[in-house]
Amino acid sequence: MTRIRLVLAKLRALVHLRRDDAELAQELATHNDLLAEDLxxxxxxxxxxxxxxxxRLGGTGQVLEATRxxxxxxxxxxxxxxxxxxxxxxxxxxxFAVTAIxxxxxxxxxxxxxxxxxxxxxxxxLPFTDGSRLVSVLTTAPSRGQDRxxxxxQEFGELQTRARSFDAAAAVSVTTVDLTGGDEPRRLMxxxxxxxxxxxxxxxxxxxxxFDPSDGRASAGPVVLLGERLWRTAFGADERIVGRSVTxxxxxxxxxxxxxxxxxxxxxxxLALTIGPDELAEPRDRRYRLVAHLAPGASIGQANRELExxxxxxxxxxxxxxxGVRLFAEDLRIxxxxxxxxxxxxxxxxxxxxxxxxxxxVATLFVMRSASRSGExxxxxxxxxxxxxxxxxxxxxxAVVTLAGGALGALAGLWARDLLPAAVRPVPGSFRFDxxxxxxxxxxxxxxxxxxxxxxxxxxxxxxxxxxxxxRAGRDAPxxxxxxxxxxxxxxxxxxxAVLVLVxxxxxxxxxxxxxxxxxxxxxRNVLTMEINLPEGERYREPARVVQFFRDLAEGIRALPQVExxxxxxxxxxxxxNVAYEAERSAPxxxxxxxxxxxxxxxxxYFRTLGIPLLEGRDFADVxxxxxxxxxxxxxxxxxxxxxxxxxALGRRVRLVRRGGGTQPWRxxxxxxxxxRTSTFAPxxxxxxxxxxxxxxxxxxxxxxxxxxQAAVIxxxxxxxxxxxxxxxxxxxxxxxxxxxxxxxxxxxxxVLSFVFSAxxxxxxxxxxxAVVAYASARRTREFGIRLAIGSPPSHxxxxxxxxxxxxxxxxxxxxxxxxxxxxxxxxxxFFGVSxxxxxxxxxxxxxxxxxxxxxxxxxxxRAARIDPVTVLRCE
Amino acid sequence: MPDKSDVLQGTLDxxxxxxxxxxxxxxxxxxxxxxxxxxxxxxxxxxxxxxPALVRLEQRGWIRSAWGVSDSGxxxxxxxxxxxxxxxxxAETASWRKTSSIxxxxxxxxxx
Lengths: 876, 112
Hints:
The complex is a heterodimer.
Chain A: H1 2-15, H2 17-41, H3 46-57, H4 60-71, H5 74-92, H6 94-123, E1 134-141, E2 146-149, H7 153-162, E3 166-180, E4 186-193, H8 197-201, E5 205-208, E6 223-227, H9 228-235, E7 245-248, E8 251-259, E9 271-274, H10 277-280, E10 289-294, H11 300-317, H12 319-322, E11 326-331, H13 332-336, H14 341-382, H15 387-423, H16 437-468, H17 481-517, E12 527-533, H18 543-558, E13 563-570, E14 578-583, E15 596-602, H19 606-610, E16 614-617, E17 632-636, H20 637-643, E18 653-657, E19 667-673, E20 687-691, E21 699-706, H21 710-724, E22 733-735, H22 736-743, H23 745-779, H24 781-789, H25 794-826, H26 839-865, H27 869-875
Parallel strand pairs in A: 4-9, 6-8, 15-20, 17-19
Antiparallel strand pairs in A: 1-2, 1-10, 1-11, 3-4, 3-7, 3-10, 5-8, 6-9, 7-8, 12-21, 12-22, 13-15, 13-21, 14-15, 14-18, 16-19, 17-20, 18-19
Chain B: H1 9-23, E1 26-27, H2 28-38, H3 47-59, E2 63-69, E3 75-81, H4 83-111
Antiparallel strand pairs in B: 1-3, 2-3
Helix pairs in contact in B: 1-3, 1-4
């Protein structure tokens, strides 16, 4: 209590500094007068009394000073003085100050942007109960070519009974279901989960209840939890929905509740179902991931060791399914990153390096600057300033630069954050940037810690000089070998770090360019897509009716003046659905695994409309679209090559193996077409296409190659559809180009980011190298002057300077390359199929770094060669 | 003989508090005079010691001050004890008595 009052009183005193001083002065004057009066009373003459009083009391100044120290917070005043001194000293060398502040601002700006992504993804705790103790369990099976693979229910059961590192675990999978019975049928994404998943995550129901353990048992009826979004759009946010029945894929489910939107966990799910009899009937289906809670005291490391043992025993018990399959646990946050995992982690590395570079740069600049101040420091030291005082002064200067650079950088970063999404439009929802107050505080902490570390380093280096050499105020106090080592070390560190960033971003960029430059395999220009989703019900129960509808519609559209070609398919070629297959007379896969391919159902004319070349055989024709026609299939080139190497695919037979799809017929290959690519990769085993009608989908996407006015085409097509189906919702129409751009956001966004970041890194490193070379050559001014005076040609002098730059460049680049070789191997998943040791990227980055360093040395070299020997020698 | 102006900080606080307790309200000069008198001029209070001490005591809430007029009609700042200051005085007096009795016994034991 007294303490608090004391601090308050002192703070108040700081504010009232002047008034308090004036009052004290008055008080002292009174004191003086009273003493003089007393002395007068003792018989001294008035003026003698006053003189004596002044003599006895001593100087008012000291008393004021001592009282002020007592009254206020002396260290705060001291700090203010140091700050004033620092600002004054920085203003004396504006070039230095601006360079240091700007390079730090660049680093901080990059970090604000980078950190903004990371924070939302990686650092902020998950909004779940005890989110930091949640892990995700997956499998990996390198011998089967699987990296992040699913878990089976059988493994889940074993883990629950045997693993002690977890006190709760739930299995999660996804499926699609069709919701019917409302005003329009919808295809929905469903989470398929263990009943206690939501209890484990601490997700609450908005209405009703979450699943309880009895849900999902065969004895209980099937139940469903609606997602908030679906509840609002399809059920009008009606709370009485709980307890009612909805039809999903033709089966009745009872609604038990509505889940609040959970943005961090399967945000795209429209509803949730429990793992039920259907799933339990296939305990070896590898389609789950587990969410588990670490038991008290258990770490992820322990959990992984235990999973290792469990995997080994599973492999012994079920060699066919489990040999070579290893279960592993990782932080749920990392797993939830999904496809962003690699790039986000890489970005994290890159921005950290840039911050490190910027801080090293500021330190370099300070060390360099201290050279011209060694005189000042020596004088201060000989006047009695302690080393600590000078260190403090340098640190305060550092702090001023850091604060200015940090504030500027944060502003620039926030500005860039708003700019960036516009530059890489369209950005999908999963690309997040959110930095809340704790995030900003954390970032500020990191920057300050970094700056303090480097500040101490440079302050130490700076004062070492002032206290080591004889205290002489000369300009040319010899630079000790220590400082030269620090200087060179910092420069090499900067070049190496820049090379590391360059190589990393270079690999990312090359991967992204590779993806972008690979032919899609189809012509996406001037193609309008429109989704048609026929209502389920009596009218379209007959597949022939469905086929008839689409055929009539296509004919009507084809007759429109702006339309060149039209067809339909599902899914479109850039989205992949994966399916297992068997092929006649094909070599089995190693390990007995079924091969998988991508499949789509298409109408005749699809290949021609999208410009997918027909290489062999024929396209589908109307005869293939009847349920009674002979089962046929068209395959892509990659499929044919992988399945029947070196042979023609025509006439061979293939059967798709669909889960729960009953017996699929053997189909004869009638045509081979060119390959198409999904968003980031070309499927290894290509595509297969089934003719619409075998089976008949009620949901197809029209692809319309048109010329002229897009809006007119959309209007006419709608009119045609509504002539037959007046109430059909037609909400989805886009240009194929736009869909692809949206789908391809990853390479695009990450290549823009890597380009920007590598440019920044290089720029920051250049400033550092320039400072080192310029400083070193300035120190040798006298030497160069003498060399020139005794007849050395100027070219010789600038070569000397360049050689020093070159040495820094080569050593730094070599160190950077070695570091990159090590680091990139770890980050190889980021590069969209580019090898982490891609020689071309390394060579380019190395050359770029060396060239840039030479460029940075050019100005000092040029200056050195133009030294006037007469001026230099006269200066001495 | 120690330097006249040497006053231990703790003892000065106690002297100021005690003086104010006895005299009621006093200005800085009055305080200095009173302390000199009581110490029979063994102590000479420097302004540089007294005023920082007064600031310290006031900031701790043990004394309060107000501007008033001295006997000779001068504007002066008068200090007086607060309730907290009185409590502090009792505590310090007790502690000082204890210390000095220990010291006294200690010295006597050594001398005998």
